[in-house]
Specification:
This protein is an all-alpha fold. It is built from 14 helices and no strands. The protein is elongated. The termini are far apart. Residues about 235-240 and about 310-320 have low confidence and may be disordered.
């Protein structure tokens, strides 16, 4: 009886291609690991190591690969610490010891009370979106959560941190979005973020509409349902000059009105003046009529008698020559 070949199911048997893919090292995931400086603005070092370990699990990296990639991504203070510690460059050091050295050096020495204060005083910066402000508050709230071994206690601490995050985010929002969020009293931080983004988008759309319709004219629609094209008015040079003159009339009327107002103000100030000569109102002592009359009375008007006397005094008279001149003349005549 011929042997009948049976097709045995092969879905449980691992394929050779699958085995090869499982053993292939994928170093292209290095681009997923961000650079880490170890400064004040850098993310926590635990997040940096979590990214490296997750990428290593997917890409089948060895411990040596993890150490080399970590060293390549270090900058600034972290790079200086790596160069100053020769134990970290020892090939025999394990990945756990490598991590422990960095954790002991760059662990946050600030207390939980400090992070509580930073979270309470958090305010949205100028130009910072609601999403960016929520991420910053979430990072501060995460630093206030203690790490405990009891899962139930850890869950309670996380819930308390979420409530603190909601309170800080609601209090720190500025502008119309912040007021609307505080009026709505959301139950979660995601709901508060949704309200803030909705209000922000509404304000942006309103500003765009106002800028678009500020000088827009009412469109005319024909009976066929089409927009009527604007008519072009052809005006002569004379009409255009007249239109320019008419356009300048309101400005001239405004200038005339301002001149009238200034004249009325000057008249009111003039009525409040006090004269120190006659104690009257409306003028000063320099322009006082009583003062002019007093000055005119002090000068005497010339009469006819006075004029005749002046003429008699100023009339030319025959003057006699000096005796010395006559004597010289007589002596000259005697000699002749």
């Amino acid at each position: 009886m011929p042997h009948q070949a049976t097709n045995a199911p092969t879905h449980n048997v691992p394929d050779d291609a699958t085995l090869r893919r499982a053993t292939i090292k994928d170093l292209s995931l290095v681009s997923l690991v961000p650079r880490w400086s170890g400064g004040e603005t850098a993310p926590p070092i635990n997040e940096f190591f979590e990214i490296i370990e997750s990428s290593a699990t997917i890409g089948n990296w060895s411990e040596a690969d993890r150490k080399k990639i970590c060293a390549l991504k270090l900058t600034d203070a972290a790079r200086a610490f790596y160069n100053a510690t020769p134990e970290l460059r020892d090939p025999t050091i394990t990945w756990q010891d490598f991590k422990a050295r960095f954790l002991s050096r760059f662990s946050d020495v600030r207390t939980v009370q400090y992070h509580f204060g930073q979270l309470y005083m958090a305010r949205q910066r100028k130009g910072e979106t609601a999403q960016e402000f929520l991420d910053r508050c979430r990072l501060l709230a995460r630093k206030t959560v203690p790490c405990v071994t009891d899962p139930a206690l850890q869950r309670v601490c996380n819930e308390q941190a979420e409530q603190m995050l909601l309170s800080a985010f609601t209090k720190g929002l500025i502008g119309t979005g912040g007021r609307q969020v505080r009026y709505s009293s959301p139950a979660t931080a995601e709901e508060a973020l949704r309200i803030a983004i909705t209000v922000s988008q509404a304000e942006i759309q309103e500003a765009r509409d106002n800028a678009f319709y500020v000088d827009a004219e009412v469109a005319e629609i024909t009976p066929a349902g089409r927009l009527r094209e604007p008519t072009v008015h052809h005006t002569t040079a004379k009409k255009s000059v007249g239109g320019a003159a008419n356009a300048r009339k309101p400005q001239r009327s405004d200038q005339h009105h301002s001149k009238q107002t200034a004249a009325a103000s000057n008249e009111q100030q003039r009525n409040q003046m006090v004269c120190y000569e006659c104690r009257g109102y409306g003028h000063i002592a320099r322009d006082c009529a009583n003062r002019r009359q007093a000055q005119g009375a002090s000068y005497v008007t010339p009469t006819a008698e006075t004029t005749a006397g002046q003429k008699h005094v100023n009339a030319p008279t025959s003057r006699t020559k000096p005796k010395a001149v006559n004597r010289r003349r007589n002596e000259r005549q005697a000699l002749n």
